[in-house]
Structures are given as structure tokens and as C-alpha cells.
Amino acid sequence: MDEDNHRIDESEIGEIIEIDEDAEMKYASDDEDQQSTSNADVPAEIIDDSLMSLQAHEQDCFTVALASNRWLATGGEDDVAFLFDQNVSESEPVLKVEHKDSVTQVLFNHSETLLATGDLSGKIMISDVATKKVRAEIDECNDLEWMRWHQTADILFAGDKDGILWMWLIGNKGIAQSKVWE
């Protein structure tokens, strides 16, 4: 059957919408379209309704670790890791650990006495949370991908982008032993 000759049965009509022929059809010009989207570049105002915020990092914070409801460690794009002690201050860090690149890994060991911080370049710093001093500096990895502490010993494992596995036994005076699997 030809579409031009098709008749609509009243049972096929769901709703009739009246069109006002006198109403002007309004279309935005190209200039108006550009003007309305130009505000998309302006960031919306962000309202901070948090109970507490840490303002130590100058750039984005990438990673956070908590220990014993006391210790908080953060790492960020500004090549720095911070350690906060909730018993001392809720907002001021007690330790600042400098790195060469963005800090993407912060981990406390099983006994929560050591903090390992690692950056994208592969630099790893081991800090004693009680003395707030760096115990060991490791710069053997290339493009650090991951880090994990052993569940019962002060042994840190790490892997880099080339699939190499590193292991360090952390002693009281630094690295006591290390091993590499390629």
C-alpha cells in the first residue's frame, strides 16, 4: 500500500498536539551556540563541606594509607609524601619525605612501625614512624609499578614496569639484605 494513501484510524491516535502557527520558531545562531558553551571552560565553584581536610600537598594527592587510627600517610603529584600523627595534629604533617617524581605508593608495614613511600621513577624511601627519620633510601627500581610489605616480617617487595621483582629486608640501620628476580 502507498504511504500517501494510508488513512489513520482514530484508534491509532495516542495524543493530538495543537500547533500554534503564529508562534515563532526560535533557533540559536552559531554565535549564540558558542556563547552558551563558552561557560563550559569555567569550573563550577566547589563547596568544601568536609569535616576535615589536609592541605599539605601543593598538587593532587594520589595515594593514602592509614594505620592504627593514628598514622596517616599521603603521596602526591608534588613529588612528596607526608606522614600525619593524629596524636600531634589533625592537619600538620610530622614528616615530609622528598621524592624525584609523583608519589604513587604509601604503605605501612605489618607492625605499623615503618612507612614505605615510592614514586613513579622507582625511588623508595623507608621511614621509621616513631623517630620520624628515613631509615633507608632505595633507588634500584625502574618505573615502580607496585609495592607490598610481607605479612609478618619487615620485608618489602616491589615490581617495576619490566617485570622485575625486588625484595629488601629492612633492618634497624637500613637494608640488611636484598634480592632481585628477573
Automatic annotation (TrEMBL):
UniProt KW keywords: Repeat, WD repeat
Acidic residues bias: start-end ranges: 11-23
Protein known as: Uncharacterized protein
Biased composition (Basic and acidic residues): 1-10
Region (Disordered) residue spans: 1-39
Regions crossing the membrane: none
Keyword Transport: no
Pfam families: WD40 (PF00400)
Keyword Repeat included in the entry's annotation: yes
Organism this protein belongs to: Caenorhabditis remanei
